[in-house]
């Protein structure tokens, strides 16, 4: 079995081979056929490669070949965004009358699918504490069809015991899907732990350069064929050029991830005992409440950490505005460090009560470490924390209304 770095460079070698060393971009909406037979065959080829780009495109198939081999799954497919991957899969796998279990700590878009979209389609949902496998068991009903998992979760870096939940689900004939965006297949392979379908916001680490919105799904061909049938109807098709950029990003994922992991770990250790910081949420810290489970299923802990400032909302604003390298942005997984203050971002969208109910502390800053030099990021973050402490939160809050 070749290693991940080799897979990332060679897994698509036989998918639309040509003598061009870099893959050509198939910037076309449609493909022509020699005769009626070839035309009909292309139309029914699952995640097809040469019929009509909404059905599939060689650049999609090349990305899928790499993702499937990295994730240790039989098949993979691409979508126009991470949310397109999730929504298309859920629409394909559940029907009115079914029940879906999700996590309380989960990406905002996923929470919205659970809370706002599924109930309108007659699907009931339960959200549970992901750290407690017994909570999943209690939530099961005879109508439960699907469990949506995310580990580590966004933005609190909570951990789910993926093998325990997969075993539970299989014992009850329930499907599992795991959002592997924060870990990537380099740090964690949910399929090896028994998860049925793995999905990603490929916008983040898989592409890695903050220049593409994309999603991927990976799993058994039989399930992906079902999802592909619905993808033809939802039409969230990734453009060929974006697929080509994603393939280019994937080539270097195994080179980028170790730096993200090292930067995340170093920042977490440097800030964990700083007096301006109440606590650092990072699964690679032995003090993380789920560190043992994280260490058993992950080989690295990623570049994202939650820094909870002791001074609450104002201190978080003060700290974030003093960071030099990480700029304020909601994304993550690119080569550049980015940071966001979730409570400030949600102020316009959610009530104070809803923010509190989400379990995200008002003083939390989510820092997504890029691939800059570790020493530079650590010095920058420590200087911002020192200054936050020295100036006092109130003075700073008035300087940054
Ligand atoms: C960004 C993100 C998504 C959504 O992906 P898009 O590509 O923005 O649609 C889903 N899950 C997690 C964990 C994310 O960080």
State the gist of this model:
The protein has helices at residues 4-10, 36-44, 58-71, 82-93, 108-117, 133-139, 162-171, 184-187, 221-234, 240-251, 253-272, 291-297, 312-322, 342-346, 352-357, 374-391, 393-399; strands at residues 75-79, 99-103, 124-128, 144-150, 175-179, 197-201, 215-219, 277-281, 304-309, 327-328, 338-340, 364-368. With 401 residues, it is an alpha/beta fold.
Give short descriptive properties of this protein.
binds pyridoxal-5'-phosphate, globular, Aspartate Aminotransferase, domain 2, 2 domains, Aspartate Aminotransferase, domain 1, 17 helices, 5-stranded mixed β-sheet
Model description:
By secondary structure, this protein is α/β, with parallel strands linked by helices. The chain folds into two domains: 4-251, Aspartate Aminotransferase, domain 2, CATH 3.40.640.10; 253-399, Aspartate Aminotransferase, domain 1, CATH 3.90.1150. Helix content is 43%, strand content 14%. The protein contains 17 helices and twelve strands. It has helices at residues 4-10, 36-44, 58-71, 82-93, 108-117, 133-139, 162-171, 184-187, 221-234, 240-251, 253-272, 291-297, 312-322, 342-346, 352-357, 374-391, 393-399, and strands at residues 75-79, 99-103, 124-128, 144-150, 175-179, 197-201, 215-219, 277-281, 304-309, 327-328, 338-340, 364-368. Strands 1-7-6-5-4-2-3 form a seven-stranded mixed β-sheet, with helices on both faces. Helix 1 packs antiparallel against helix 3 (58-71) and helix 11 (253-272) packs parallel to helix 16. It starts with a helix and ends with a helix. The model is unreliable at 394-401 (pLDDT under 50). It binds pyridoxal-5'-phosphate. Pyridoxal-5'-phosphate binds at residues 81-83, 107, 109, 150, 154, 179, 181-182, 201, 203-204, 213, 215.
């Amino acid at each position: 079995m070749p290693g991940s770095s080799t897979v990332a460079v060679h897994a698509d070698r036989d998918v639309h081979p040509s003598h061009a060393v870099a893959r050509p971009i198939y910037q076309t909406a449609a493909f022509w056929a020699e005769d009626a037979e070839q035309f009909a065959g292309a139309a029914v080829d699952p995640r097809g490669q040469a019929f009509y780009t909404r059905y599939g495109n060689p650049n999609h198939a090349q990305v899928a070949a790499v993702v499937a081999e990295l994730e240790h799954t039989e098949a993979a497919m691409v979508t126009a965004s991470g949310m397109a991957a999730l929504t298309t899969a859920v629409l394909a796998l559940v029907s009115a009358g079914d029940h879906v279990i999700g996590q309380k700590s989960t990406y905002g878009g996923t929470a919205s699918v659970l809370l706002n979209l599924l109930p309108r389609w007659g699907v009931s949902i339960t959200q549970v504490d992901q750290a407690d496998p017994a909570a999943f068991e209690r939530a099961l009903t005879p109508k439960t069809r699907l469990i949506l998992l995310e580990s580590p979760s966004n933005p609190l870096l909570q951990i789910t015991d993926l093998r325990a939940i997969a075993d539970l689900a299989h014992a009850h004939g329930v499907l599992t899907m795991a959002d592997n965006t924060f870990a990537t297949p380099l740090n964690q392979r949910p399929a090896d732990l028994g998860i049925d379908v793995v999905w990603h916001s490929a916008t983040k680490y898989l592409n890695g350069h903050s220049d593409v919105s994309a999603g991927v799904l990976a799993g058994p061909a039989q399930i992906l064929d079902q999802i592909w049938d619905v993808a033809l109807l939802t039409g969230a098709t990734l453009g060929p050029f974006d697929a080509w950029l994603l393939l280019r990003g994937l080539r270097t994922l195994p080179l980028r991830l170790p730096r993200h992991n090292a930067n995340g770990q170093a920042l977490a250790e440097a800030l964990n005992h700083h007096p301006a910081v109440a606590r650092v949420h990072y699964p690679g810290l032995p003090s993380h409440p789920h560190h043992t489970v994280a260490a058993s299923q992950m080989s690295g802990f990623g570049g994202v950490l939650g820094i909870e400032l002791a001074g609450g909302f104002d201190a978080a604003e003060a700290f974030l505005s003093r960071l030099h390298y990480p700029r304020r942005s909601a994304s993550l997984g690119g080569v550049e460090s980015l940071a966001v203050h979730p409570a400030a971002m949600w102020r316009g969208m959610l009530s104070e009560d809803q923010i509190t109910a989400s379990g995200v502390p008002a003083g939390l800053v989510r820092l997504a470490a890029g691939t800059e030099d570790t020493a530079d990021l650590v010095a920058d973050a420590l200087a911002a924390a020192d200054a936050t402490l020295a100036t006092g939160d109130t003075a700073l809050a008035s300087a940054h209304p």
